Amino acid sequence: MFTGIIEALGTIIAVNNEGSNRHFTVASPFAAELKIDQSVAHDGVCLTVVAVDEAAGTHVVTAIDETLRVTNLNQWQPGRHVNLERCLAANGRFDGHIVQGHVDATATCLSVEDQQGSWLFRFGHAPGPGRLTVEKGSICVNGTSLTCFDSTDGGFTVAIIPYTYEHTSFQQLRAGETVNLEFDIVGKYVAKLLGKAA
Fold it and tell me: How far apart are the C-alpha atoms of 127 and 110, rounded to whole Å?
């Protein structure tokens, strides 16, 4: 389980295909602390560490075809920055919200508005069961726990403060690009229960 509080920015160093799988080599500040078989969220996608090179400061994760199909990982190329978060420690603080690392959908960044001190990002996504946001509710965008507003059936807006902008991949995000979304798990359960009761 994750919280959507980004620990570090990683950089994609290499991308290698093996059959229908794709291996990503990622450089990060905490690569030497990772262990093989550990789960790490990469732009909100929970991936398993399959190799670690402490000397190089890199680790390798593998995405299967299904993951590539339902996330933006099929667009990752060397040089790209990705948000990284290790699993929540049992004695850690819950600073974000419940994030599973299971992407529900991708969305398109519709606009980026510089507010001279913060940035407004507008996202659009296909509506569907469980794909709901509420005003001032939680949303996970590329692994980042955020509060959404201007919520509709197919979109929402988030405000990004300077610290988040500087320390996450939002600094490279432009209109027209694709992001990973994970909707609030509590909201998804409520929606399913209400659907069954209807």
Answer: 15
Residue type (1 letter), 138 = S
pTM of the prediction? 0.92
Identify the helix (H) or strand (E) that includes residue 138.
Answer: strand 138-141
Residue with tokens 């432009």: 174
Q: 60-97 pLDDT, tens per residue? A: 999 999 999 999 999 999 999 999 999 988 777 888 89
Closest by CA position to 131, among listed 148, 110, 154:
154
Nearest to 98 by CA among 147, 45, 135, 138: 138
The string of pLDDT tens digits covering residues 97-128 is 989 999 999 999 999 999 999 999 999 999 88
Task: Give 160's strand partners.
Answer: 119
Buried b / exposed e along 144-168 (16+ C-beta atoms within 10 A): bbbebeebeeebbbbebeeebeeeb
